[in-house]
Amino acid sequence: MVERTAEFKEMQSRGEHLDLKVAKRICNTGAGDLEAYAAIMDAEVPIFAARFKDAIESYAKAVAMLPDFSSGDAGAAKQLDDAIQTAAGLRGVMDEAAQSLAGFRQAIAALPRMTTQYNRAKRHALSILDTYLGEMKSGSNRLVECQKVLGAMRAELPTPST
Q: Using an 8 Å Cβ cutoff, are 84 and 150 in contact?
């Protein structure tokens, strides 16, 4: 998108009148870029969703076994505290990335209608970005649930001495 905008600005800076053929070519090239992005995301988002779900479930199960392998309640408590902080940190990063992605989605949505090819690519990109944002929200919710489960486990153990 940055490259296509630069092409439009370059044409304007030379003082040329807007050549509709050139403008259409730039829009359709941008549409191809946007469609390529959407196609890649179509393939990657379901993989991300499935892998992230599996990872969080595995993480929670592994952490749930900490008390069984710990040398004592204090060691398990410290490890659970660390696990809760790790989940919280991941959630923070994920929420920040989702905000950035939502801004990108908004920037695409705000672009005016152009050529038919561009409008189709724009709709496709917006659709997959909506799906991705939904998966990121779902992942963030999974992390909240993971934190709650770990927090409940932690509450059953004594506070580690400092």
A: yes
137 touches 49 (CB < 8 A): no
**Environment class of 110 (CB within 10 Å of its CB; exposed 0-12, middle 13-18, buried 19+):** exposed
Q: Which residue has the tokens 């296509």?
A: 4
Gap between the Cα atoms of 7 and 50, Å rounded:
39
User: How far out from the chain centre does Cα 59 lie?
Assistant: 19
90 closest CA partner among 67, 65, 63: 63
In angstroms, the CA 137 to CA 95 distance is 8
Q: Tell me: the pLDDT tens digits for 95-150?
A: 999 999 999 999 999 988 888 999 999 999 999 999 999 999 999 999 999 999 88
Q: How many CB atoms lie within 10 A of CB 100?
A: 10
Spatial contact of 60 and 148, defined as CB atoms under 8 Å apart: no
Angle value at C-alpha 59, between 56 and 65, nearest 5 degrees: 145
Angstrom distance (rounded) from CA 53 to CA 56: 5
Prediction pTM value = 0.80
Query: Residue 31, Cβ neighbours under 10 Å: how many?
Result: 22
